Amino acid sequence: MGNRSTLVGMEVPISGSCDPVKWLDLSVPHSDSHSNGVSSGSSPPLPLAQFPPLTDDCASCCLVGDPPLYFIWRIHKAQPNVLELLELSAQSEFPKIGLRITFPDPLSPFAHIHQNQDSTLTNPYTLYILSVSGVAYLIKLRTVPAYSSISIFPKDELFEFDLTGCSVDAPITSVAASAECLVVGRKDGSAACYRFTLPNHAVPGFANELRDNSWISRLWGSISRPRAVGSVLDLVIRKLYKMPFLFVLHVDGVIQIWDLLRHKKVYNRGMNVQIFEGKTRDNHLNFFFVPLPFRLLVSTSYSFNHIIWNSMDRQTKQ
């Protein structure tokens, strides 16, 4: 057995969480034309732009504001078009009221909530959601008790955009968001940035494709075919010196960093599979393979002079 340590955990109830939560049910109305005039037409959305359907329940937490509020969201696989929201705070008791939002289509396992910089008493938060059919939603959230008297989201507090109407029809494999934009990664290795903070989709700069297609790359490509990167596996948005950067992890181990203001790639590096050689007692050779990462974790160092990124291999995903 040796001295190998084992991590043991136990799920325990939060104080006050045993009381039933009263859910306020709201619905997002179905729209025949997405994103202020971007029509989906008579044909159904492109199947290549869809997320795979949920196979398990999913949940996560968004940390908002100072002092911090914790928005816990959850999607049940039995009700894939329903998002549940709970707002927790260390300064208050466990919430007695939660928000349950019903969307027209099943949802992808993604949600992002942030506090508005110009927050008002009416809509202090913003919620990003993406459906498996490729429709992105931006919802101007009120406080949870403010929805006790309504059952349908007001149209002026809801913005939706059909990503299947874009020129790129590759499947979406990863999503990330910040206060400034929503970013999706695709199976063809590209990423796209959508700035929902702009007035409408027709404004220049609303949608930007992040791919290495500069004129020097096209010229070099005519001489030597460049190595194509694999599909996008994970996305992380972080600010450095008040500038937003996108960290992209590809399935083949390539890490790219993009400047989201100039839409330029500033870093590109591949991580090869490491092979370690060892010998057993009978002098037989053993080879140990370190698998490629499946998730990217980005954090600033204490000196604030550089960025540290860590990867988790697939064997730790249990």
TrEMBL record:
Residues 70-272 form the Nucleoporin Nup120/160 beta-propeller domain. It comes from the Eukaryota. One of its GO terms (cellular component) is nuclear pore. Pfam families: Beta-prop_Nup120_160 (PF11715). Keywords: Nucleus, Transport. It is found in: Nucleus. GO terms for molecular function: structural constituent of nuclear pore. This is Nucleoporin Nup120/160 beta-propeller domain-containing protein. The lineage of its organism: Eukaryota, Viridiplantae, Streptophyta, Embryophyta, Tracheophyta.
